[in-house]
Specification:
CATH architecture of the largest domain: 2-Layer Sandwich
Distance between the termini: 63 Å
Number of domains: 2
CATH topology of the largest domain: Dihydrodipicolinate Reductase, domain 2
Shape: globular
Helix content: 25-40%
Structural class: alpha/beta
Number of strands: 19
Largest sheet: 9 strands, mixed
Radius of gyration: 25 Å
Strand order of the largest sheet: 18-17-16-15-7-14-13-10-19
CATH superfamily of the largest domain: Dihydrodipicolinate Reductase, domain 2
């Protein structure tokens, strides 16, 4: 064997795990954003598209057409997009915004869609796009049916009978419906013009790195899945706390409330990922099947005064970071007798073998003392403390915390001896954040979701049955609250909780994790 052949045999083979870390770029596509001059598009969509463009994950054959009721020229729209990026003056930004154009009109007017067809045909020709078209509905949910019907009547929407990589996709923001009946009705309207495989319902929490990491954390590590059950886990707490009030969303929020805005989608979505059974494969339908099966196992929650699994609250005046803030009913455009909830706390039970008798506590609220989102899994304490003779008879349980915001990461607490005294013990933590470990913040969740839509991967989007099962759990509670004339219990802005929520969790023998210590 000569030296040359030997050298060829010794060339190292790349680690397959490293190869799998490479992102799949999106294919050629045109994106149409309805509500293009709105707040969500400016805060989330354009910045996320630019980051994909900057990272070379956006195909060179890409363009975006904005549609809105605000009258704008193409130049004014491009300037607005540029400002949403921080008004960065660079050649890269100029090339990016050059791909944007704008149409204004009424969403129910056929003329708008005739103009849209013409604009897309011209953009297809200019940017050599013959691939997928994505229609993003960044508009109030009341307009979903109007736009879907108009897309269908103008033939811009075409149901794909068989999977088609170039079939148009419809992306919808939450909330998807207001209750079970309206969600079923909306699904019926959409299915006239799009097949289920073409409908991508966004829950942006599912695009967050730590939420996605739940699957790999559970199912790629042999040390966790064997103890991920009722025999070892004592309770689970899911928290979404915000310091902000309703801000500029008062009209929308007063018709929605915390139950529809956060609980029905984000909270139940995270619950499903934490508790679901292992999918047969890391594939979209297998994962979504298990998510739906888990939600079907959630016991209906009771909100009667004598058997309370769920309570609601509304923030009053108080202070956030030392600054006085007004109460909910003193906010602009909020009625003085509004019964809209800004806080929801719930205790859920999952009736299957894995989770029988393990309580899942969930809470979400506005004007809380700290902005934080986390999932905390508390393991059962040791059955017997050998240190009772020296006063350590009640050892705290090990807690695994999946930190979702403001900094994404994972923390595990455990007991260990401290240097010094023979029996000096304290709780220590194994802690990492994505920023510290990888040298950068985790990407914005909309980057992940937009790229998945472009590549035709629906794993992190909600399926029709997923939406309807979630609404079936929430709708009876909403009906009960609508028939209750009382105003939700008030909690002061800047609080960590309030008595009704505390009583619910204390009834199970536990207490809420303190926001100040998260």
């Amino acid at each position: 064997m000569n030296n040359q052949s030997l050298e060829n045999k010794l060339v190292p083979i790349p680690d397959r795990r490293e190869m799998l870390c490479a992102e799949t770029p999106g294919g050629p596509c045109g994106v149409v954003v309805f509500g293009a001059s709105g707040d969500l598009a400016k805060r989330k969509l354009y910045g996320s598209l630019f980051e994909l463009y900057r990272r070379r994950l956006l195909n060179d054959r890409f363009y975006c057409v904005g549609c809105g009721r605000t009258a704008l020229t193409n130049e004014a729209f491009r300037e607005m997009v540029s400002q949403s990026l921080g008004n960065r003056d660079s050649e890269e930004v100029r090339k990016f915004v050059d791909r944007f154009s704008y149409l204004s009109g009424d969403y129910s007017d056929p003329v708008l869609y005739q103009g849209l067809r013409t604009a897309m045909t011209e953009a297809d020709r200019r940017w050599s796009v013959s691939g997928r078209r994505i229609f993003y509905l960044s508009v109030p949910p009341t307009l979903y049916e109007t736009i879907a019907n108009a897309l269908g009547s103008s033939s811009l929407a075409q149901p794909a009978v068989t999977p088609d990589p170039e079939a148009p996709i419809l992306i919808l923001e939450k909330p998807f419906g207001r209750d079970l009946d309206s969600a079923i009705g909306l699904n019926s309207v959409l299915r006239r013009h799009f097949e289920e495989s073409q409908i991508y319902r966004i829950d942006h929490y599912l695009g967050k790195e730590t939420v996605q990491n739940i699957l790999m954390f559970r199912f790629a590590n042999a040390i966790f899945e064997p103890i991920w059950n009722r025999n070892y886990i004592q309770q689970v707490q899911i928290t979404i706390a915000e310091t902000v009030g309703v801000e500029h969303r008062s009209g929308y929020y007063d018709q929605t409330g915390a139950m529809r805005d956060m609980f029905q989608n984000h909270m139940l979505g995270m619950l499903a990922l934490v508790a679901m059974e292992p999918p047969v494969a890391f594939a979209a339908e297998a994962i979504r099947d298990e998510r739906v099966k888990l939600l079907r196992s959630v016991r209906p929650m009771r909100c009667q005064p004598w058997a309370t699994d769920i309570v609601r609250g509304q923030y009053g005046s108080g202070a956030i970071d030392g600054q006085p803030v007004s109460g909910y009913r003193q906010e602009p455009d909020i009625g003085k007798d509004s019964r809209t909830e800004t806080f929801v706390a719930a205790r859920a039970w999952i009736d299957n073998w894995r989770w029988k008798d393990v309580p899942f506590f969930m809470r979400t609220g506005k004007r809380m003392s700290r902005k934080v989102t986390e999932i905390a899994i508390a393991f059962r304490p040791v059955p017997h403390s050998m240190f009772a003779s020296v006063g350590l008879d009640n050892l705290p349980p090990n807690v695994l915390v999946l930190k979702i915001q403001p900094q994404e990461g994972i923390r595990m607490s455990f007991q260990a001896k401290r240097p010094g005294s023979k029996v000096c013990m304290s709780t220590l933590s194994l802690d990492f954040t994505y920023r510290d470990l990888f040298g950068a913040e985790a990407p914005e969740s909309y980057q992940r979701l937009l790229l998945d839509a472009m590549t035709g991967d629906p794993t992190l989007f909600l399926r029709q049955d997923d939406i309807e099962v979630a609404w079936s759990l929430v709708t009876p509670i909403l009906r009960a609250w609508e028939n209750d004339a009382s105003i939700p219990a008030e909690y002061p802005a800047g609080a960590e909780s309030f008595p009704d929520a505390d009583a619910m969790i204390h009834g199970s023998g536990f207490g809420w994790r303190r926001l100040s210590e998260m």
